[in-house]
From TrEMBL:
The keyword Hydrolase applies. InterPro entries: HAD-like_hydrolase_sf, HAD-like_sf, HAD-SF_hydro_IA, HAD_2, HAD_sf, PGP-like_dom2. It holds the Pfam family HAD_2. This is HAD-IA family hydrolase. Gene3D superfamilies: HAD superfamily/HAD-like, Putative phosphatase, domain 2. One of its GO terms (molecular function) is phosphoglycolate phosphatase activity. GO terms for biological process: DNA repair. Transmembrane segments: none annotated. Keywords: Hydrolase. GO terms for cellular component: cytosol. The keyword Ubl conjugation does not apply.
């Protein structure tokens, strides 16, 4: 009997291009405290971390109480942008749906999510794009330490019963690759997201996809098939 495999996807910058909402909400969080917003490149560099960690990195000299207020302001701004144009503002990357459907059609492949988003944020995106039925496990920042801590991946392995050697973390940031390496799973970096390819390779990416059409074949390479 063939053993089960797990393809574990990051969300922002991997499945969905949500940078418009992320940058606008971060600017709103800083403005709420009378602070100048950080450059866009700095904002994108922390995508993948849990929100409190991300804001603390962008505003390292601010006290915890102020960070907490900025987190709340970010969430309020992000929620306010969830409207009729949300799908256009946070689109799936080209080929994402076809890739997920191809993997879901394989009885020996399970699909999951490991994201720095909140449960509320992930549910919104899943509903927006009709993705939920494809995923058997969804690990979010509400329940775990921030990436690159391996807890999200370890929880996904426990939930699915898949061995670490048969799981692949797919993501666009060094945090995804470091998390996967810490959990002992294989790592597939994607080049269309928010961190540069050299950063992915330095963090432990074993393969690199430049378009979604390559992902299934690269996964099977990592699974030794």
């Amino acid at each position: 009997m063939s053993r089960l495999r797990l393809a574990l996807f990051d969300v922002d910058g991997t499945l969905v291009d949500s940078q418009g909402h992320i940058k606008a909400s971060m600017a709103a969080a800083f403005a709420a405290e009378g602070l100048a917003p950080p450059p866009d490149a700095e904002v994108l560099s922390i995508v993948g971390l849990s929100l409190p960690n991300a804001i603390a990195q962008l505003a390292p000299d601010q006290p915890p109480a102020r960070i907490d207020r900025m987190v709340a302001a970010y969430k309020d701004s992000y929620a306010a942008m969830r409207g009729a144009d949300a799908a256009a503002s946070s689109p799936l990357y080209p080929g994402a749906l076809a890739c997920l459907d191809a993997l879901a059609a394989d009885d020996h492949v399970l699909i999951g999510v490991a994201t720095g988003k909140s449960r509320r944020g992930l549910t919104h995106l899943m509903d927006l794009h009709g993705l939920a039925p494809r995923f058997v496990t969804t690990q979010v920042a509400d329940d775990h330490p921030s990436k690159p801590h391996p807890a999200m991946v370890e929880a996904a392995l426990a939930a699915t019963g898949v061995a670490a050697a048969d799981a692949v973390m797919i993501g666009d940031t060094s945090f995804d690759m470091e998390m996967g390496r810490a959990a002992g799973v294989r790592r597939l970096g994607v080049a269309w997201g928010y961190h540069a390819v050299p950063a992915l390779e330095a963090a432990g990416a074993e393969r690199l996809a430049t378009e979604f059409a390559q992902v299934p074949a690269l996964l099977h390479e990592l699974w030794g098939e």
